[in-house]
Amino acid sequence: MCLIGLCWFTACTGSKTVADSAKKEKAEDYFGESDKVEDYFSEEEKMVFQRTENDTVSISGDETEYEIIIIDPGFNVWLRSIARPEGYYSQSFLEIRNQIYVINWNNRVLQPQQFSPRLYELQINYDPTIDYGYELNYKLYNYFIYFQRKYGQRLGPFVPRI
């Protein structure tokens, strides 16, 4: 079994959400012009973002060669209750978006002076020539959406919407 370098994600229990962040102006750049960035989040999503207990998602099995482990409080609940269901996106869509997000993520890991090393700890080893399967791409893509929405980041040219 090969890990694709995804045993990392932020266990930042002390991180603030976009709604609590002092950087609302920056968040408005990411989510659009609004007097209230909070308006972009449902009450359910706001509650999930405030979770602090451990929440781990792991994908592995006898048929998979690759494993992804995501540790970020609230992600598993967000994935089950707020994210689009499996099958909503095609695998090719997920792979293309994941490539963009991984490149931007890895660039931020290499720039700790500019981007918080508490958010961007480790690089992701994601090879676009490898077929990781639908489930891994689905969960990775949704983690990127969750991460961008929760922490007010933007890892690509698209607004992170659900």
Give your account of this protein's structure.
The longest helix is centred in the middle third of the chain and has 19 residues, at 91-109. This protein has five helices and three strands; from the N terminus they run E-H-H-E-E-H-H-H. Helix 4 crosses helix 5. A three-stranded mixed sheet has the order 1-3-2, with helices on one face. Helix content is 36%, strand content 7%. It has helices at residues 24-31, 43-49, 75-81, 91-109, 134-151, and strands at 2-3, 56-59, 66-71. The chain has one domain (2-151). It has 162 residues and is mainly alpha-helical. The radius of gyration is 15 Å and the shape is globular. The protein starts with a strand and ends in an 11-residue tail after the last helix.
Low-confidence stretches: 1-28
Number of helices: 5
Return the domain count.
1
The neighbouring-strand order within the major sheet is 1-3-2
Order of helices and strands: EHHEEHHH
Strand count, sense and closure of the main sheet? 3 strands, mixed
Helix-and-strand structural type: mainly alpha
Beta-strand share of residues: 5-15%
Shape: globular
Rg, nearest Å: 15 Å
> How many strands?
3
Helix content: 25-40%
Task: State the end-to-end CA separation.
Answer: 31 Å
Summarize the topology.
Blueprint: E1 2-3, H1 24-31, H2 43-49, E2 56-59, E3 66-71, H3 75-81, H4 91-109, H5 134-151
